[in-house]
Every structure is written in C-alpha cells, then in structure tokens.
Amino acid sequence: MISKRRLSKSENRETLMEDASKARKQPLSKKTKESYASNEVEENDTIFVRFLKTSGLILKTGDNQNQLAVDQIVFQKKLFQSLRKHPSYPKVIEEFVDGLESYIEDHDSFRNCLLSCERLHDEEASMGASYSKSLIKLLLGIDILQPAIIKTLFEKLPEFLFKSVSSDGINMPRLIFSQLKWLDRIVDGKDLTAKIMQLISIAPVYLQHDFVTSLPEILGDAQHADVGKELSDLLMENTPLTVPILDVLSSLQLDTHFLSKVRQLVMDKLSSVMLDDLPVIIKFILHSITATNALEVISELREKLDIQHFILPSWFQASQIKLKSKGRASSSGYQEDNSPNCVMLLFDILKSTLRYEKIISEAWIKAIENIAPESEHQSFDLAMIFIIYSTNTQAKKNIERVLKNKIRSGCIQEQLLQSTFYIHFMVLKDICPSILLLAQSLFHSQDQNIILFGSLLYKYSFNFFDTYCQQEAVGALVTHVCSGNETEVDTALDVLLALTGLNPSAMRLNAVFVKGILDYLDNLSPQQIRKLFYILSMLAFSKHHEASTHIQDDMHLVVRKQLSSTIFKYKLIGIIGAVTMAGVMATDRSRSTLTQRRVDLSNEQCKQVTSLLQLVHSCSEQSPRASALYYDEFANLIQEGKMTPETLEWIGPTIFNDFQEAFVVDFCVVPEGDFPFPVKALYGLEEYDTRDGIVINLLPLLFSQEFAEEGGQMTSQEPGQKLVSPLCLAPNFRLLRLCVARQHNGNLEEIDGLLDCPVFLTDLEPGEKLESMSLKERSFMCSLIFLTLNWFREVVNAFCRQTSPEMKGKVLSRLKDIVELQEILEKYLAVTPDYVPPLANFDLETLDVIPHSSSAASAKNKKRGKIGRKRKADGSKAPSPDTLSKEDNSECDAMPTGRSQLDKELTGKEVKTSVSLQNYSAFFREMDIEVFSVLQCGLVTKFILDTEMHTEATEVVQLGPPELLFLLEDLSHKLDNMLTPSFTKRNPFLKNKGNRNIGFSHLHQRSAPEIVHYVVQLLTPMCNHLENIHNYFQCLDAEDHSEVGGPGVKAQEYHIMASCYQRLLQIFHGLFAWSGFFHIGNHNLLYSALEILASRLKQIEHEQSLEELVSQSFNYLQNFHPSIPSFQCGLYLIRLLMVLLEKSTAPALKKEKIASLARQCLCRVWSHGEKEKSSIFNEHLHDMLCIYLEHTDNVLKAIEEIAGIGVPELINSPKDASSSTFPTLTRHTFVIFFRVMMAELEKTVKGLQAGTAADSQQIHEEKLLYWNMAVRDFSILINLMKVFDSHPVLHVCLKYGRLFVEAFLKQCMPLLDFSFRKHREDVLSLLETFQLDTRLLHHLCGHSKIHQDMRLTKHVPLLKKTLELLVCRVKAMLVLNNCREAFWLGNLKNRDLQGEEIISQNSQESTADESEGGTSSQITKSKATEDGEENEASDEEKEQYSDESDNSD
Within 13 Å of residue 406, how many CA atoms lie on the same side as its CB? Predict the structure, then answer.
C-alpha cells in the first residue's frame, strides 16, 4: 500500500510536467511554433535523426520538448517501414540504436527523450491518446527496436542509481523505469525479467521498492511465473522488501501451489516482522487462502500472530489514561502515534476479508472451535469472535454456539475477557452494538456460566466504551429486567448494582433509564425489588450530588403510594422500598471523613431514617402480615450493619418493650378465656418458680385471633388497642435479638431467658383423640404447632452462636423439640388435607401459596382433588420443586433423588403418616446458615441448677440422629438452592412466576463463595459424622444384621442413619460440583476443602499439588463404599467421586475405579427400602448403569457379560427372582438394562473412526476384530426381543437398531472395502451374523404393522430405508472387490418375532410383486426383501469368491 502511494507521486509529477509544457506552448500560434522550432532543432545527419524527421518527430535541444508532427501511431508505423525497407536491414537497426546512444549521452537530450513529446496539431488530440508519449516509449512500441532500446536503457540506468535528484526535481531512475510500463507487447519477456531482477539486486532500497511494485505494470502474464519465483527468492534474502514483494505477488497470476509455498515462507517470518509491515502481510495470507486449505492456514495464523506483542506499553498506558479521563489522550511519541494506526489498519483488513469471504470466516470459527481445552486461548481469539459476530450476519448462530461451548468448558473465563477489552478496546468500541447484541443473546441461555459471561460483556462495555455505548448497555439491562425471566432479571440487576458501585458518576447519567423500572414493580420478586431500590438509593442519596433530587422525589412518591395501599402486594413493595432506602441513607452518611461534619450529618440523617421507619411502622401496624414483613426487613438491615448507632439507640427500647408487652407473660398469670383445650406451659428447659418465670403467650393469642376473625370483630377496630398477632412472634423476636446482638457485640444475656422459657400450649400428642377431633380443632392444633416450630427455629437461630456449654445444651434441646414437634405435626396433617398453615415467610407476592399434601386421607377426599388442580393451575407461586410424592425429587445438580422415599423411610410403613413436610417448607421460618455450627458439637455437659444457683445435677446432651438428619436436610436444600443453577422455563412478561427461592431470603443475602466458605469450615465435623455412620453400618454387617426384621424402633433408626448417610453425600456432592471452583478467585476454597478430606487419611506435612489432593480425597471417599446402605447412597458416592475427578488433570487413572465401584453396586443385593418397581429406583439404576459402561475400559466386553451371562440367568430363574451375577437385573428392570446397553453400544461404535486404506495391516485387523465383537453384542441384544417382547423393548430395538445400522454403514463398510481380500472369511462371517440381525429387524417391522402400534410404526420407514441402503452398500463393496456376480436378490417373507410367516401380508405382497415385477430392477426389489439378500449374497460369495479373487489378484 505504501508502494502504491510512492508510485502515484512519481506519475503525478510526470503528468504535471507534461501539463506544464502544454500550458507553456498553448498561447503560441502555429506560425510562431514553426519559427521557434526551426531555431532549436537538432541538426546532424545520422540515421537516427534523419529517420525520426522523415517519420514526423523533431528533436529539440536544451530544455525544450521534442515535437511530434503526426499521430503517435502514424509515427511508429512510418519509422517501422523506414527501417524495415531500408536496404541494409537489419544492420540499419544497429546504426539507428548507435545514433540514439550517441544522442542521449547528453543529459538534457536524454531527459527530453524520456519526457513526453509536444504535439504540433491540436486536432490530433481527438484522434489519438489523450496524452503524448515520450520518444523512448514510442521507440519501445516498435518490435524490431524494443530489445535494443531496452538494452540501451538498462546500460544507461546504472549511471543515475546513486546520484542525487537533480535541481529540476526529476528522479532519473524512476523516469527511465517508467518507460517500460504498460507497453502493448513485450518481445523478449524472459530477458527483460532477468534484467529487471538484476537491476533490483544492485539498486538502493528506496528504488528497489519502486522497481518491485512496478513489475505488474511492466511484465505480461507469461512472465508472472518466472517473476514470482525470482521474487520468492528475493523475499528470503531481503526482509525490507517483504511488503512490496507480497503486494506484487498478490497482483500476479501465480500457481496455487507456489502461493502456498510463499505463504508458508511468510508465515514462518511472521513473528519477526515489523508492525508497519503486518497489515500487508496478513492481507496477502488471507487472499492466498483457498477452500481446501482455509482451516489449516487460519489455525497456523492464529497461533503465530501475537497482536498483544505488537501493542506497545506506551499505547497500553495511553489507553488506560484515556479510559480514566474519558477524553482524547494526546500522543506523546512516535510509538503512540504509529502503533494504534497500524493495529487499526490490520483489524480493518480482517473485517473486510471476513465480511466478504465466507470461507475465511467459517474457517476462523472452526479454528477457534478446534482449540484444545488444555491449550491457552488468547485475547485475539475472543476479539476475532466479536469481530466475526459483527461482520458476518450468517455466522451469528455458529459464533454463539462456539462461544457457549467454550464458556461451558471453562476455556474462556473472566480474566481472558478482561484482557481482551484492555488490549483491543479501540477495535471493540467500533463494534459495541454487536457486543451488546451478543450479550443479550447469552442472557437467554439457561446455563449460569453463560449468563454470567453475558453480564461481564455488559459490565466491560460500560466501563471501556463511550457515553453512547454506556447508554445502550444500561438500556439493554433495563430491558432484561423487564423481560419476565427470573434469571435474566436477577443477573441484570446484579450488573446494574455492580456498575453503580464501580462507576456511580456514569451510572447517574443513565439513572432515568433505571428509574423507569419503577413502572414495572408488579413483575419483580421481593428480592429483586430490594436490589432495584438499593441501586436507585445509591444513585439518589449519594453525597455531593444534589442533581439527584428528582430520583429521591420519585422514590418517595412511589414508596408513600405503595404504603398507603390496602392491597398487600403493593404494601409489600412500599415496605421493602422504604426500609432499603433507610438503610442506604444511614450507611452512606456515616462514611464521611470529617469528624465534626459527620456528627452533624448523622443527626440529620438519623431524623430522616427514623421518620421513614416510623412511617412504615404506622402504615403496617394494622396488618399482621405487613408488620411481620416490616420486622423481617428491618432485621435484615441490622444484620447487614446498615443501621447507625443513633438509630439503634432510638429503636432498641421500643422493640424490646413492644415484644415484651405483646408476647411475654408471667408464669403465674393464668390465661383467661373459653379455650377449646386446656392451656399448659410446655417445653420449658428449667424448673420455674411460679413467682418469677415467664411464658410465651402463644395459644391464647392464636385463639383470640381466630375467634375475632370468625366473629368479624377485629381487635384493630377498637380504638387505643393495638393489634397483636401470633404471626408476628418469630419476626419480632428476630428483630429484637439482632438489635440486642448489635448493641452488645453478640451478647444475648439480656434476652437469654427466652431460650429456655416455656410456651402456653396444650397437650399436642394426639393419641386416640385425633379421630374424634373436628376439622376446626385439627386445623387449630396444626396452626399452633406451626407457630411453635417457627418460634423454636428462631430461638435456635438466635442462640446457636453462643459459646457457653449451658447455651449449647439448651440449643440442642430445642433441636430435639423441633424434631419431636415435626413428627406430631405429620400426624395432624395426615388427617387434615385441606389445611393451609399460617405464613412464616412474608416476602411472598401473593397469598396463594398452598401446600401440597400426599396423605392417604386426601386421596379419598373428592374435594381434595379439586383443590389440588386449582393449586396447580393458579398456584404458580408455590415452590416449583415441591410436587407430590415421587415428583419431589429435584435435589442436587439436576439429579433425581428420593426425597419422598426418604420421608417414607423416616416414617415407616404407616399410610396415615405419609405426609412430606418438605411440601410445607414455605411455612417454616428459615434456619440461618450459622445454625449448622451445631454440627461441631460433640458431647455437651448441661448443668441443672437449684434455686440457690448451685449445681443440682448434670446432664450430657449430644446431637442425635434425628436432629442430625434435620440439620443435614436443611443444609442440603440450601446448597441445592444456592449452588445449583435453576433451569426454570421462561415465563411470559407480566405473568406470575414460580418462586424457587421461597424460604431462602436470608440465604440469598450472602454470595455463593461465602456459603461455600462456611460449608468448607463444616467439612471436618461432617466427615466425623460420615465416619461414625460408616462405622455404624459396618458394625451392623459384622453382627449380621443386614436384614432389618426386628422392632420398629430399630428399623426406624436404620432408615434415619441411612438417610443421614445419603444427605451427607448429597452435601459433599453439591459442594464439589459447584461451578464456581473453576474461577481463579475460588481456587483457595477448593484447596482448603480437598486438604480437609486428604488429611483424614494422613497428616499433610507439606504443601501438595492439586492433583495429589484430589487423589488422596478420592481414596478417602472410596473407602466408604463397602458400608453403603442403599443403592441411592452408592449412586451419590460415585457421583461425588466423578465430580472430584473433574478437578484432576489426569482423570483416566481413576476412571476404571469408578467403573469397578459402579459394577459392585449393580452386583450387590439391596434389601433395605429399594423398590425396583419405583420410578426413582429405575432412574438411579439407569444412571448407575450408564456410569459403569461409560467408565469401563471395554464397553463391548461389559455389554457381552450382562447380555450373555446376566440375562440368561434371569431367563432361567423363577418369576420374581433376579440374575445371580447382577442382582439388580430383574424382569422389572430388564428394559432399563436393555435400553442402556443398546444406547451405549451405538454410542461406542459411532465414536470409532472409519478405517482408511493407508492404515497399517495391524490397525485393520484390530478394527475388524472390534466390529466383530460389536456385531456379536448387537446380535445377542436383538435376539432378546424374542423373549422380552414388551413395547418398551421393541421401541428400543427399532430406535437404536436403526442407529446401529447407520453407524455400520458409515464406520464399518469403508473398513470392509479394503479388508475383504485379505480377511475374506472374517468379513463374510461378520456380514452373515449382521444379516441375521437385520432380518430380525425386518420381522420387527412386520410385527409393528400387523399390531398397528402407532408408537412403533413411526420408526419403521426410517429403519427400512436404512436397511435398503445397507443392501446397496454391500453390493458396492462386492463390485469394488471384483465380486459383482456374487450379489443376487431374493424375496424375504414377512414374519413375526417368533419367525412365523404373516399370511395376511403374504398375499398382498405377492400381488404387489406381480404388478411391479416387470418394471422393477433387482435393486428396487430390495425394498421388499430388505436385507434377506445379504444372507444369500454371503453364501454365494463363499462359492464364487475363490475364482474371482484369483483373477483380481
């Protein structure tokens, strides 16, 4: 490109000189010209001058132009004839050239011969060219003179090579060389080429550049090959000429093979070229690409092209300065000026090529896709993905697919994206709209990692690009917030929140867009409303920004409007918004650095915060649910540390007094009222004196509330009397204890009496009176138990972090009370099917959260079915995982678990108590994550004091199995919700959404890494519990108590321990399966977790590598396998081991161990609670079998063992028995085994590469042996349908049978093509065996048709088509091996699965054969015969092959 610019300058100079000479001569008349010419005409009598005069050209002396009196073509014709007809021709040519040489010895004369001639007749301009040629150029146009003239010029040219430019500004070498351009004909191209290349080798560098770039304008097509070869040699010797040489090679017509050699030469030098030369080099490489080598060239180019190396540190620094200042960075050096321009030019070339060359764009995408996961991806790769996405519209889907796969595999992470924006932001800012469009597309994914990557695109686009791009990014995020998809809304709000913290000034400019979301609050969940108000509050109440008052006004307007609403949905928005605003106002003002100013602002801010909280309190005090929500929201603020001490000083006594007046009474006070049950103070942990004890007044408050509701007399209507609801008991206490803990640094001595105080209840154990109770009484008892459970849950939340043994003992006692109450509650719920409990989580959007019940009594109630359907239709607010019985299984990592099975195991075999409390999870108070510190408690000694505060007795308290199971279940649910991404379906805009996060609002106030960090700290006590349970089951096995046939207590203990075992494995799996471990910032958490597991085997003395830790952790966990009590536990253990291997760099070493453990599970007799007919067990068996076959080193051998040994044992066993080798293989589970074996067999052969003729003989034999084993396994499996002919088995045969035949066609037939001659018997045996299998498939097609089973017949057409292709392909193989006569066709009768002929179809087929027999060819008859001909072909081949093979060889 530089060469062309220099060339244009020289040509322009010549043109300007010609124009100037014309301008000088134009004013002269013809007569004046003639007189003027006669005075300065060259006068000598040489042949050269004489012939020029007779031909019409007058030579002038001095600085005057030579004059041409005739047309240029006429001059050349006359001169040619004069020379040709001269008597001394061809000797006259030498004399003519000698005259020229003597004439041009004078510098001025030579210059005149090189400059254009002056035409004497103006009218000639219309007849000839628009410009006049020089004398030399005219002479070069005469063929008989051209070789001699060229020789003369090249002899003359070296005189001027090293001379400076003359005073007239004319560069003589360039002027001489320009005479050779655009000649009509080259007489001796080879000679001219040789002269030019010789000249280039001795010329100065600046002239070499011009000479090289002029070659396409001088030489003809015939010389392109020779010039190309010479230039390629020059390219190897002369690096400074790389750019002009490549520029010329791009313009020449060269052989593709030759260009590939030059391209490879250039590619090898790519790492050492200058940045200025890079654009031309890349352009040459891209333009030399063909469809056949595109992928190879692009792959090599991306490996050797290191753009980051060329971007100088100065530019990098300037880019950062520009980013910070948001202005134009002034250049401070030549490097800063040049580097960005060259890089931008390079990317412009790439954009242009990718836009118009589809082959290159597709090859580049494929090259990036083919990068191995272990290889390091470059920032240039990611930049090219963005560029291709912006330039090629048709490749968008392909780019999205490749990028998503790279993100899933962990190849492209945040660090790479950040470096891409830092290095290439000048290029990326031009394609900002495309990047935002890509981010929008990634947001629609269901993969959490992909959505996170899309959020990072928005974040970096906002931080790196200009104001317009920032506005577009915020607008797109607001659109996501209003999309109605829960995941999109959460992620978009998280991005907006992050941007507000990183760049508040820029976000404030776009606050009007964020403020617009206030119009769509109806579609947001409470947690999303909190985020939105937090973002707006950060923008509105930040210091020194009075311009944000309009946001404050709008927020206050919205909050007051929502608080005054009588509809709870809108009041909820007002409460959440107001409390969030109060928290931001208080937090922001307390961060001032000036002490005195801080006091003044804190006083002012305290008044604003307290007035806002008073407004919320006054607007919610008449609604128990609104009051409870206000208490919870206020408690969250205190827990997060967003309340100033001044505010707590004002609010603390008020909270304490309100709680005491509302819910606490003296122990000696006897409740007054006509209660339906006797009121007793129960669940006290201390012996109270009647004078100073306190009691929680629960039952009287609940009774008064229900009585008031029934009578229509709300206490709130009575003036001066405050409404007190037991619904507010737990939320009010949570607010109280957090306020006390914050004021006293975690010390709860002021309220420790509430831990052990009793509660006013009644006898809760139903006993025999349960059946006699009315529905109203049972509902009242259920509500009472729910409220008591929630009270105890909050008490445990409050005091679980207390360190004294006395407190720990009481907390353990409360946990036992919770477990005991839950067992009682299950009994009540089993006979109260339509009961709706009181709410415990108040940030719900509607009141339509109705629990699901799985009780037996509800199945008998007709009305219960209607309620269930209604709940399913309009109760979308109910927790989506909480479905009935077996559907309630979604535990960890999208794997079905047996939650309902666990509940049944826990409750024994009684039908009446088959209620799962998990269906009522929305009505229990959330347990804080700190509660699980109780898992660290061992034996706790509890001191019982007398009235004199002396130790009266001691009691040892420990965490029992039921309490352990309660904690483990809750922790498992928390990890499942927090660490496992939700794949909910997209909900339409402005439609209600199922809330997966009900009961996890406190959990979601923490980040996933925080939760993982806390769980890692619990690994040690959980390992202790795991080992204790392992020892328990080992002792049972040692005592030969594997069969639990004893009392119900022992059976229940066994099932509880088994459930604890499973929950622990689920927690471990959920922890290590967390995708966040792949993030570099969380590697320390992974190391810590693995170190804890590894240290259980031996003490870690030195720092170990990740691989060593993974191996030791794997060995530790696999030791638990012998004591696994259930098949489900075995599956979770193996999945846990698989997750650990994903962290390993060499997982293949442990792969066979996984297969061995899975096989042991399949070969073990499971007798405890494993019901082979249940769908849960079937799913687990399917997963276990898949794991076994995927990890075994020989899939075909494993399938043959199951199908050839296990299945015959099953066939020969009694009806209800199982296989002796594989006890899990029964008649009920056979279809699972069969489906998995067929699927894995097809998957295995499909992954086998087709052989080629170039492979070695050993490889051919190995692949042929492999296919023999595969076909033998296929034959065994297909023949099983004669014994097991149920619909699922036949469906599997039709589906996977066709896929296997297709794989045989694609992978095996090419191998048979070139293996037939050397391995004839093996090939014939293989085809014969496979023919029998395809015949069975044909029989299966007939069976499906005769039974008219639509579920089967839909697979028949595709299967028959595949069988026809197989027949044709076998014939083609025989033709290839000169055995065409060995192939013949025959009719195959339609038969059923047992081989009996189908008579009804036979007559119809005979008629069809008669009607088509005259016109059908042998191949078309195969449509009726399918693959039967293959058998006859095989037999015939055995007879005829010997003769024909001898001839062919």
Answer: 29
Confidence at residue 719, expressed as pLDDT on a 0 to 100 scale: 43
Q: How far apart are CA 1267 and CA 1251, in angstroms?
A: 11
Q: Contact at 8 Å (CB) between 67 and 57?
A: yes
Assigned token pair, 104: 């041009």
Query: DSSP string spanning 76-128?
Result: HHHHHHHHHTSTTTTHHHHHHHHHHHHHTTSHHHHHHHHSBPEES-GGGGGTS
Spell out the alpha helix ranges (H) of 930-1018.
Answer: 961-979, 1008-1017
pLDDT over 60 at 94, yes or no: yes
* Sign of the dihedral defined by the CA atoms of residues 54, 57, 58, 61, in that order: negative
With tokens 């057409």, the residue in question is 1357
Nearest to 730 by CA among 828, 629, 814: 629
pLDDT of 331 > 80? The answer is: no
Which tokens go with 749?
Answer: 């001595």
Identify the pLDDT of residue 929: 92
In the sheet with 67-68, reading across from the earlier edge strand, the strands are: 57-58, 67-68, 118-119
Residues 6+ apart with CB under 8 A from 1328: 1431, 1434
Q: Which of 268, 351, 278, 353 is nearest to 309 (CA)?
A: 278
Q: Which residue has the tokens 């954009």?
A: 351
With helix as H, strand as E and coil as C, how does 774-809 read? CHHHHHHHHHHHHHHHHHHHHHHHHHCCCCCHHHHH
The set of residues, in sequence order, having a beta carbon less than 8 Å from that of 713 and lying 6+ positions away, is none
Q: Which residues touch 472 (CB under 8 Å, ≥6 apart)?
A: 432, 433, 436
The contacts of residue 1307 (CB under 8 Å, 6+ apart) are 1245, 1246, 1248, 1249, 1250
The pLDDT of residue 1134 is above 90: yes
Q: Three-state SS across 672-725? A: CCCCCCCCEEECCCCCCCCCCCEEECHHHHHHHHHHHHHHCCCHHHCCCCCCCC
- Given a contact cutoff of 8 angstroms between Cβ atoms, the answer to whether 620 and 578 are in contact is no
527-537 burial, b at 16+ Cβ within 10 Å, e below that, comes to bbbbbbbbbbb
* Least confident interval from 179-188, 238-247, 628-637: 238-247
CA distances from 747 to 735, 799, 1363 (A): 15, 10, 80
**Amino acid present at 877:** K
Q: Around 1039, how many Cα atoms within 13 Å sit in the side-chain half-sphere?
A: 9
Pick 311 or 658 by higher pLDDT: 658
DSSP H helical segments within 141-214, as ranges?
146-156, 172-178, 189-202, 205-213
Task: Quickly state the pLDDT bin for 1368 (edges 50, 70, 90).
Answer: confident
The mean pLDDT of 86-110, rounded to a whole number, is 89
| pLDDT tens-place string over residues 848-879 | 455 654 443 433 333 333 323 333 333 333 33
Interatomic CA distance for residues 1145 and 647, integer angstroms: 54
* pLDDT tens-digit readout, 152-195: 999 988 888 888 777 677 888 989 989 988 888 888 888 888 88
- Pair 837, 868: CB distance under 8 Å: no
898 pLDDT exceeds 60?
Answer: no
Strand arrangement, sheet containing 694-696: 664-666, 694-696, 759-761, 680-682
Give me the amino acid identity at 752: D
Query: DSSP character for 468?
Result: H
- Whether the pLDDT of residue 1424 is over 60: the answer is no
Cβ-proximal residues to 995 (8 Å cutoff; 6+ apart), any chain: 525, 844, 845, 877, 879, 880
- The arithmetic mean of pLDDT across residues 364-376, rounded, is 84
Is the four-CA dihedral 1372, 1377, 1381, 1387 of positive or negative sign? negative
* Sign of torsion over alpha carbons 724, 728, 729, 731: negative
Q: What is the pTM of this model?
A: 0.72
- Amino acid (one-letter) located at 982: S
pLDDT value at position 928?
92
